[in-house]
């Protein structure tokens, strides 16, 4: 019997139950239950303005009426191209209320990308902010179906006196004035639907609840169909695995973007079905990080490692008491043990008894499916599977489970695993496979291993590997070593094309605040590396940067650095 069948990780659950009940409800119905239980509790805070659960449900009903009046109905797809604003939440749950499907994309997507997403999803409408109107308008001739443009304005959701002052801000002045026609204002759409009678909510728990996007295991864009159950199970599992029993009354820093599985699934939906308060952050800034923490005092912070690296650079936190932090969860990218040590030390120095708890998952299972137990952290581990979720490690390219501590491809089975890729049965069949145990397993395309107790260790994305002189080199391992140096804040290791070695290794390094990027430091770091890294895996180049490029969700954009370095090498 393999590790996956015996589930040894349950011995480390503490107070977390091994199994949960998953109601056959839609996301809207789950939220409705919470709102009935905590009607006066604040559902979300936006720029200081609070909205209660009862008010939120009223806003969702009004938005649903407006969407029905507009001609949106059951099964229709609507693209939500928004930052973390109240209208984004209203629209997401209103679409679920009427059985339509939100197609979630980043508002900073290029115009051609937006056209692709709209055509790919066959969307009947798109909701975006006024500052992005012209980007959407320019691609209308490329759209294959008539598409209604809905425009939301941040100013409509600001409290007094911010709403009055907003037009004078630099950001507002930079927004090009809207034309008189060619779109419908979100505010006007809601108002127009006030007398509309909504059909009964007849959604099913296994209906598609949202479409998110990912490169999958092959790197090409795919629409991931996630069900109501997928989202609801994630929320219930996350709350159970957190170790708090419940999160009602807590405050969640909802800084991860709403179009991303981590931001939507945990930062928004988990918080809301758990009766917590979302602190909506439409645009993250290191400059306002400290101010947000001190002023809002969030209890729970889910984020990617760069969010916690930014914590070390945030100004005006010296001497601040951060004891209000009760849960700090890292996911979405590899958290090096060295960065974890630095952040944990920072938290201790600021009167916080909690440590970063690393998790892991993929958009194909919404987001997290594994989390470090509250009292059983193991260095380098991404934790243990959620309740009712099973992990196994197989020989890459097969369904054969390997033994403990043997590297292979990580596979996941459980109630958060996606329905499939939209209109892509071939890739769905490649990624979702039925194994000899009868279960459907998600093949993640990630390398790792599981120890004898069921703790999981992530090694590397299978498609991110450097081959130099015939040797396999895993960038994240080298980054962990470089990040371990006391003068290093962050690093990124890439492979550069080399006629002799195939690829040579290059390291980009961001020094700690106050550390000068000198030739002496470069020599010191290379000498340090030579004592920790095999000769074949040693960086041949080391370049200092003040910061590293980030993806739209805040991960280090190693592909940007790869393209840059390889283009320069080709000259």
How do the helices and strands line up, and which of them pair or pack?
Elements: H1 3-6, H2 27-37, E1 42-46, E2 49-52, H3 53-70, E3 77-81, H4 86-97, E4 101-104, H5 111-121, E5 125-129, H6 133-137, E6 148-152, H7 162-165, H8 170-173, E7 184-185, H9 186-192, E8 208-214, E9 222-227, H10 228-242, E10 251-254, H11 261-273, E11 277-280, H12 286-296, E12 300-303, H13 305-313, E13 327-330, H14 337-349, E14 356-361, E15 368-371, E16 384-385, E17 390-394, E18 408-413, E19 420-421, H15 425-431, E20 432-434, E21 440-450, E22 456-461, E23 466-468, E24 471-473, H16 475-483, E25 488-498, E26 502-511, H17 519-530, E27 541-544, H18 558-570
Parallel strand pairs: 1-11, 3-4, 3-5, 5-6, 6-7, 10-11, 12-13, 13-14, 26-27
Antiparallel strand pairs: 1-2, 8-9, 9-19, 14-15, 15-16, 17-18, 18-21, 20-21, 21-22, 23-24, 25-26
Helix pairs in contact: 2-3, 3-4, 3-9, 10-11, 13-14
Structure description:
The chain has 571 residues and is of the alpha/beta class. The chain folds into three domains: 268 residues, 3-Layer(aba) Sandwich (Rossmann fold), CATH 3.40.50.12780; 167 residues, Rossmann fold; 104 residues, ANL, C-terminal domain (GMP Synthetase, Chain A, domain 3). Helix content is 31%, strand content 24%. The chain contains 18 helices and 27 strands. The strands form seven sheets. A five-stranded parallel beta sheet has the order 4-3-5-6-7, with helices on both faces. Strands 12-13-14-15-16 form a five-stranded mixed beta sheet, with helices on both faces. Strands 17, 18, 20, 21 and 22 form a five-stranded antiparallel beta sheet that branches. The chain starts with a helix and ends with a helix. The model has no long low-confidence stretch (mean pLDDT 92).
């Amino acid at each position: 019997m393999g590790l996956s069948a015996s589930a040894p990780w349950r011995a480390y659950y503490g107070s977390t139950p091994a199994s949960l009940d998953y109601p056959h409800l839609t996301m809207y119905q789950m939220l409705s239950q919470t709102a009935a239980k905590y009607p006066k509790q604040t559902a979300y805070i936006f720029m200081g303005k609070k909205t209660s659960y009862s008010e939120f449900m009223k806003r969702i009903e009004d938005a649903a009426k407006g969407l029905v009046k507009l001609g949106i109905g059951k099964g229709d797809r609507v693209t939500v191209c928004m930052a973390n604003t109240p209208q984004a939440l209203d629209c997401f749950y209103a679409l679920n209320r009427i059985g339509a499907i939100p197609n979630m994309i980043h508002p900073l997507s290029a115009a051609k990308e937006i056209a692709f997403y709209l055509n790919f999803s066959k969307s009947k409408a798109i909701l975006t902010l006024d500052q992005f109107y012209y980007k959407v308008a320019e691609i209308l001739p490329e759209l294959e179906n008539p598409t209604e443009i809905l425009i939301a304005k941040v100013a409509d959701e600001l409290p007094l006196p911010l709403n009055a002052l907003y037009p004078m801000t630099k950001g507002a002045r930079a927004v090009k004035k809207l034309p008189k026609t060619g779109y419908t204002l979100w505010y006007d759409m809601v108002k127009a639907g006030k007398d509309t009678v909504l059909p009964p909510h007849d959604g099913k728990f296994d209906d598609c609840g949202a479409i998110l996007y990912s490169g999958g295991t092959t790197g090409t864009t795919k629409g991931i169909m996630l069900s109501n159950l997928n989202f609801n199970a994630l929320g219930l599992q996350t709350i159970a695995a957190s170790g708090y029993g419940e999160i009602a009354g807590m405050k969640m820093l909802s800084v991860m973007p709403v179009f991303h599985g981590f931001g939507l699934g945990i930062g928004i939906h988990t918080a809301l079905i758990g009766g917590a308060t979302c602190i909506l952050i439409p645009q993250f800034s290191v400059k306002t990080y400290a101010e947000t923490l001190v002023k809002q005092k969030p209890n729970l912070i889910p984020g990617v490692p760069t969010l916690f690296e930014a914590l070390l650079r945030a100004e005006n936190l010296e001497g601040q008491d951060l004891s209000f932090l009760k849960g700090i969860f890292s996911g979405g990218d590899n958290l090096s043990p060295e960065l974890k040590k630095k952040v944990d030390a920072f938290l201790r120095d600021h009167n916080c008894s909690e440590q970063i708890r690393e998790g892991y998952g993929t958009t194909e299972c919404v987001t997290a499916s594994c989390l470090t137990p509250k009292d059983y952290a193991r260095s380098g581990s991404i934790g243990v599977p959620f309740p009712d979720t099973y992990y196994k490690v197989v020989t890459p390219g097969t369904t054969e489970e390997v033994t403990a501590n043997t590297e292979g491809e990580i596979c996941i089975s459980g109630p958060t695993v996606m329905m499939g890729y939209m209109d892509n049965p071939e890739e769905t069949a490649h990624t979702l496979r039925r194994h000899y145990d009868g279960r459907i397993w998600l093949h993640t395309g990630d390398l790792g291993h599981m120890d004898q107790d069921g703790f999981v260790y992530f090694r590397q994305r299978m498609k991110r590997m450097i081959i130099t002189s015939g040797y396999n080199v895993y960038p994240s391992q080298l980054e962990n070593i470089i990040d371990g140096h006391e003068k290093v804040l962050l690093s990124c290791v890439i492979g550069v094309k080399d006629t002799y070695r195939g690829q040579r290794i290059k390291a980009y390094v961001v020094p700690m605040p106050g550390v000068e990027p000198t030739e002496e430091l470069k020599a010191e770091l290379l000498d340090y590396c030579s004592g920790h890294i095999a000769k074949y895996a040693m960086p041949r180049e080391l370049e200092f940067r003040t910061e590293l490029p980030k993806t739209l969700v805040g991960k280090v954009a190693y592909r940007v650095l790869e393209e840059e370095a390889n283009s320069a090498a080709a000259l």
